[in-house]
Design goal:
Elements (H helix, E strand, L loop, with lengths): L2 H11 L5 E5 L5 H8 L5 E4 L2 H10 L5 E4 L8 H4 L5 E5 L2 H13 L4 E6 L13 H9 L9 E7 L8 H21 L9 E3 L6 H6 L4 E4 L1 H4 L6
Parallel strand pairs: 1-2, 1-8, 2-3, 3-4, 4-5, 5-6, 6-7
Bound molecules: pyridoxal-5'-phosphate.
The site of pyridoxal-5'-phosphate has 13 residues, from strand 8 and helix 9.
Length: 223
């Protein structure tokens, strides 16, 4: 397993205008630095404590993305430095991110997670809830967050058609929101979909960010 060549091959395969979040959860400082040394600066983690430790130990020009299920009571630990929170799934969480961003004199970019998979276990807003939330104007009062797009996870299946349809559905919701509610403004721009197993399908469906772990770093060992 050669992390650097994995990353270089992946970077060649993915169009330049699509951002890669190198998902480094469970991986060591050393492994992360191998990708960093190639010039890559965007890394993603899904556990707050692990993210904070890595932020503290690793170079400060890394752009850290939080990609997991974020608990309200832990927002304060990442608010000082996190660049993008993928997968915000409640108004309560948005309000907490706004409060902590304000305390840190920052604006934090967030993606709303939409539930597109058939499985019950995946988090996220239902399509109607997203439109309700944005119509309610409640988010207009949250001055220290910016909704920069949507995130979604497809059903875990080998059926590419199912995955493509789910990603395409998310792209449609995104386009609709962008034109109807965000007036095609230039910050509502991001669609985060696609991981190691399905990024090729996500690219076909129009993703702008892929979150890739095992295709770069190899399999994860959970202890
Ligand atoms: C772990 C994780 C990924 C990366 O998964 P791979 O299959 O290793 O590429 C992407 N997104 C989220 C939300 C994750 O938790």
């Amino acid at each position: 397993m050669n992390i650097q060549s994995n990353f270089e091959n992946l970077r060649k395969e993915i169009p330049e205008n699509v951002r890669i979040v190198a998902v480094s959860k469970t991986k060591t400082f050393d492994e992360i630095m191998q990708v960093y040394e190639l010039g890559h600066r965007i890394f993603g983690e899904n556990k707050v404590q692990e993210l904070v430790e890595k932020f503290e130990r690793l170079p400060k020009d890394i752009e850290w993305h939080f990609i997991g299920h974020l608990q309200t009571n832990k927002v304060k630990y990442i608010a000082p430095f996190v660049s993008l929170i993928h997968g915000v799934e409640s108004l309560k969480l948005l309000k907490e991110i706004n409060k902590r961003a304000s305390q840190n004199d920052r604006t934090i970019d967030c993606l709303l997670q939409v539930h597109i998979a058939k499985e019950d276990t995946k988090f996220g807003f239902a399509k109607e809830e997203i439109f309700d939330l944005i119509n309610s104007n409640e988010i207009d009062n949250l001055k220290n967050i910016r909704i920069t797009g949507l995130m979604g996870m497809a059903t875990y299946t080998f059926d590419d058609v199912v995955v493509f349809n789910e990603f395409s559905e998310l792209k449609t919701i995104f386009d609709e929101l962008k034109s109807d509610y965000f007036n095609n403004n230039n910050f509502f721009n991001e669609l985060s979909m696609g991981m190691s197993g399905d990024y090729n399908i996500a690219l076909k469906a129009g993703t702008t960010i892929v979150r890739i772990g095992s295709s770069i770093f190899g399999d994860r060992n959970y202890h």
